[in-house]
């Protein structure tokens, strides 16, 4: 299920560039060509831009815009225009996506910051040991998801986000001490500004399963 491609609309030039990058990409990015960014669609006003987004998520987008305007008036602007615009587009695309609406993951902004996201992986491969561990975790602690934190810098999307596993404590699956995830696509060498955040979320989910990640129950206390 996680390996199914999401819809993408790209120019021929972008496809060629993507193919060239893929030749040099490490193993853990081999599926990302299915998830690359869609071209910015021509917006015929706000109605088109917000089409397919639920009311609750539209309210979140409006709150972000309001906070940004207020910060600008107060001279307390954080981040960069480039990163802010891209992150707004990423969030809008996520709110429209089938995987988000299908409950594969959820996104929450930490303290309403566009540069700090908590992402819950709500579904992993049902045939995996990790899925079984999460079911046991649900019985024991009432939690059956993996919480990731995405931290973005001012130069996003040209630099990758920093991603770590917050909870539960995992072993294997390329997860290091402190929750950092060892994946080439999250390094400057393996990253491409064409990757969407949803593609990264889905790839991390697949990589945790592929790397046989397991919940360390004793370490979660």
Automatic annotation (TrEMBL):
Gene for this chain: Ube2q1
Protein name in the entry: E2 ubiquitin-conjugating enzyme
Domain called UBC core: residue spans: 82-221
Biased composition (Basic and acidic residues): 43-52
Acidic residues biased stretches: 16-31
This protein's GO CC annotations: cytoplasm
Cellular localisation: Cytoplasm
Organism: Lophotis ruficrista
Record Gene3D superfamilies: Ubiquitin Conjugating Enzyme
E.C. designation(s): 2.3.2.23
